[in-house]
Amino acid sequence: MSKFALITGASGGIGQAISLKLAEEGYSLYLHYNKNQQAVNLLLDRLQPYGGEYMPIQADLSTKAGYKKVVQNIFSIDAIVHNSGSAQYGLLTELTEAETDKLMNLHVTSPLLLTKELLPKLLAKNSGNIVVVSSIWGQTGAACEVAYSTAKGAQIAFVKALSKEVALNGVRVNAVAPGAVQTAMLNDFNEEELEAVKSEIPMGRLALPEDVANSISFLLTEKASYITGQVLAVNGGWYT
């Protein structure tokens, strides 16, 4: 019987890597995206050889009601991967209320309420997994990314709390916290700035989206059956 996973932010670099990895492992997928329909269409083409069911769902999770559009398109579910996100650079004194609302809706409120609505489906099966893609900045914080760090730290608190609430129901809840990942999120950095970042990372390179996807894949398997409430740092030793 096919297993179904929801991946939010499936059109991004990390989301595509997660989708391909889980499809390879036999999952059928709900592929959430917001604006990048072209990327999702190309992803669907790449997924076809794996033979599962792959269903795109468009919704803006930075709005208060966006999560409801996702929920109404979900039927059977075995895993939820909260991957949607966007960076927010700048001094805290320059942050607007509108930017704050969008950031918190996308990273905190929507994942919280989406999980609330879908959790009964996992509890009914007495099994399932939830993985949140947080960030190194949720663990240690970053200047000029105060709001983003706050949101990512909230995701980690969510994982630690919910994991205790549902552990006896057979549902595991974990997070991965990537460092600098080679995706479009780093497009605003020039080559010199990227080299400076690499020089701070003990392994001397940026993460690939596949590095993050592989860590999520592990957390979803029976090999991680006794792991819940944890944050797996995927950062090349940058923060330990």
UniProtKB/TrEMBL annotation:
Keyword Oxidoreductase: yes
Keywords: Oxidoreductase
UniProt-listed InterPro entries: NAD(P)-bd_dom_sf, SDR, SDR_fam
Keyword Oxidoreductase: yes
Cited SUPFAM superfamilies: NAD(P)-binding Rossmann-fold domains (SSF51735)
Family to which this protein belongs: Belongs to the short-chain dehydrogenases/reductases (SDR) family.
PANTHER family per record: 3-OXOACYL-(ACYL-CARRIER-PROTEIN) REDUCTASE (PTHR42879), 3-OXOACYL-[ACYL-CARRIER-PROTEIN] REDUCTASE FABG (PTHR42879:SF2)
Name of the molecule in the record: 3-oxoacyl-[acyl-carrier protein] reductase
Originating organism: Cytobacillus oceanisediminis
